[in-house]
Amino acid sequence: MTTPRVAATPQSAQRRDVEAKPIQVGLLGIGTVGGGTFKVLQRNQEEIRRRAGRSIDITMVADLDVARARSIVGEGIEVVSDARQVIANPAIDIVIELIGGYGIARTLVLEAIAAGKHVVTANKALLAVHGSEIFAAAREQGVVVAFEAAVAGGIPIIKALREGLTANRIEWIAGIINGTTNFILSEMRSKGLDFAEVLKEAQRLGYAEADPTFDIEGVDAAHKVTIMSAIAFGVPVQFDKAHVEGITKLSATDIKYAEQLGYRIKLLGITKRREHGIELRVHPTLIPSKRLIANVEGAMNAVVVQGDAVGTTLYYGKGAGAEPTASAVVADLVDITRLHTADPDHRVPHLAFQASELKDTPILPIGEVVTAFYLRLCVSDEPGVLSRITTILADHDISIDALLQRESAEGERQTDVIILTHDTVEGRMRDAIGKMQALPTVLAPIVSLRKEELA
Prior knowledge:
Elements lengths: L9 H11 L2 E6 L3 H12 L1 H8 L3 E7 L3 H8 L4 E3 L2 H6 L5 E4 L6 H11 L3 E4 L2 H18 L3 E2 L10 H8 L5 E7 L2 H13 L3 H11 L7 H4 L2 H15 L9 E2 L7 H9 L2 E12 L2 E12 L11 E8 L3 E8 L3 H18 L30 E11 L4 H11 L4 E6 L8 E8 L2 E2 H12 L9 E5 L4
Parallel strand pairs: 1-2, 1-4, 2-3, 4-5, 5-6, 8-10, 10-17
Antiparallel strand pairs: 7-9, 7-11, 9-10, 11-12, 13-15, 13-16, 13-17, 14-15
Helix pairs in contact: 2-14, 6-7, 7-12, 9-10, 15-16
């Protein structure tokens, strides 16, 4: 029996023609990541075509250094100095923004969206500050803004949160999401050096920028955890409400004491669901050395996600670099190519939750955060000192988990007392520290660091 052949409809024939046509991409900025993206697309072109169903071709590049850009992409690709020429080109389907920063990048991304272009960006700062505006504009135009490369480089953490863990109620996320600071802390721990010495070495080796402020002050990590928090909990991006501390004041002494107590210090981006709001914070944190994330060394990144159904999951890999970040950029290109002709209402929402379902859940001020603490007090070596300190903690309903008192050397009249507490409200701890600092037997500013068990 012969199966009857069904004639193709004009619509299906049109769809096949569209699907056969290569996706044309315009690249804004061909620095480290842009060059890596071009290289990966060229090298893995056939594999990518088989996965996407169509070829993906960078056909136009904008960069202020036209000569250098031409030397990277070679012949056959149009290179211009004005990014708006790329946006204005009707043949361009997707614009990749790799310029960085809050200023011209925001303007160009919004102009690309207004022109009906899909956008891929690695710009975490832009999305953390202006994400709500950008995503709203994209919804209005029916285009996609994809940003896997904005958080943790080549680790597919955005896709995991938006899609892989969509059945879960996310409880918390904690991540080492800045390779520069993790390299510095790893070196401080392994070599016993202070921050300033290791920073110079990190700059010499290329792990830290000439101006490393965004990294070492925690701002870069805060941009990234802000984006993850919005996706995890279905809230707008709210970078301005994040609590941010860097590692510049961290000493080798505290890293050593933490090690003796079974902990390692990492700069963590943390976001947690609480009964009355969401915690959103970046700061140096003591983590039990037996946790996998505590053993992430060098410039590597890792993110731990706690979901109610799946439990604890860990995502580990390179958080920066030309090709690791390009891996995420190209993955976004493939996703958009697959969805290019799809109904916008059937695409995965930018922040995982439907736009109408985003909640204005408050970000808790740091004084309302609940965590445990590490305290180091330099005190007079005399009777009754420890009793007065523990009394103040007890008066503030703060219980002690562990205590270490360093024996003073012969002739010394002062010593260090190290205290680990159980969970308490931060505001209560601040009050207790103020009372302890006022004691005449406390001889130096008290060092306090937060501690997370991540269990």
